[in-house]
TrEMBL record:
Catalytic activity line of the entry: futalosine + H2O = dehypoxanthine futalosine + hypoxanthine
Organism this protein belongs to: Sphingobacterium alimentarium
Function: Catalyzes the hydrolysis of futalosine (FL) to dehypoxanthine futalosine (DHFL) and hypoxanthine, a step in the biosynthesis of menaquinone (MK, vitamin K2).
Lineage: Bacteria, Pseudomonadati, Bacteroidota, Sphingobacteriia, Sphingobacteriales
Top class in the EC scheme: hydrolase
UniProt GO molecular function: adenosylhomocysteine nucleosidase activity; methylthioadenosine nucleosidase activity
The keyword Hydrolase appears for this protein: yes
InterPro entries in the cross-refs: FL_hydrolase_MqnB (IPR019963), Nucleoside_phosphorylase_sf (IPR035994)
Pathway(s): Quinol/quinone metabolism; menaquinone biosynthesis
Protein name per Swiss-Prot or TrEMBL: Futalosine hydrolase
GO CC annotation terms, alphabetical: cytosol
One GO biological process term: nucleoside metabolic process
Keywords: Hydrolase, Menaquinone biosynthesis
Stored SUPFAM superfamilies: Purine and uridine phosphorylases (SSF53167)
Enzyme Commission numbers on file: 3.2.2.26
């Protein structure tokens, strides 16, 4: 069986398209955000034959300055950050409310030789000092944020399908400053990893 490569946008995966086409490995572009991702991936999994695993790739922001921009990492767990309730200055998770599960985990059957970090998935990326501080106080173990990752883990968990998520760091989580972003570097490094992983495993 072959894997399904999942990315939010075409530009995040475009350097690897020739290799994927050569090996006849399917690629799904979901659109940005957890809603678009859950719909597109859920539909793809319902209509297609079984995949060996889902490989979700994309760029992400890092809360940690210890991770250089352009770093490629594996996401060990991902949490729906906004799924819950506000309680004054505190945020209550869906688990704390007793209404379900908000954190999902990688489940790959293949070894991924990358540093592993926890992430959150958000509808709106952080760019305000107060909201960043609140997030870090609530989830001090979290290193990265994206807009799709937890939705991919969720969909694959429902289908009991192995899934890995790999992210390249394009920016730090801070007040928005596009001049400091390294999107091109992140995409280059991400696709170099993906192509190597595909060649070694498929």
């Amino acid at each position: 069986m072959k894997p399904l490569i999942v990315a939010a946008t075409p530009f995040e995966i475009s350097p690897s398209i020739p290799l994927l086409e050569e090996l006849d490995i399917p690629c799904l572009i979901t659109g940005v955000g957890m809603t678009a991702t859950a719909y597109a991936l859920g539909k793809a999994l319902a209509l297609a034959p079984t995949y060996a695993e889902v490989i979700n790739v994309g760029i992400a922001g890092s809360f940690s300055r210890e991770l250089p921009l352009g770093s490629v990492v594996s996401i060990s767990q991902d949490t729906f950050y906004e799924l819950g309730a506000e309680d004054g200055n505190n945020v209550l998770s869906i688990e704390e409310l007793g209404l379900g599960k908000g954190t999902y985990f990688t489940s790959s059957r293949k070894a991924v030789d990358l540093p592993k970090y926890a992430a959150i998935t958000v509808n709106r990326v952080h760019g305000n000092e107060a909201s960043i501080a609140l997030c870090q106080a609530k989830f001090p173990h979290v290193a990265l944020e994206s807009m799709e990752g937890a939705a991919v883990f969720y969909a694959c968990a429902q289908e009991e399908l192995p899934c890995i998520q790999v992210r390249a760091i394009s920016n730090y989580v801070e007040q928005r400053d596009k001049s400091s972003w390294k999107i091109d570097l992140a995409i280059t490094n991400l696709n170099n990893w993906l192509q190597k992983f595909i060649r070694e495993n498929y």
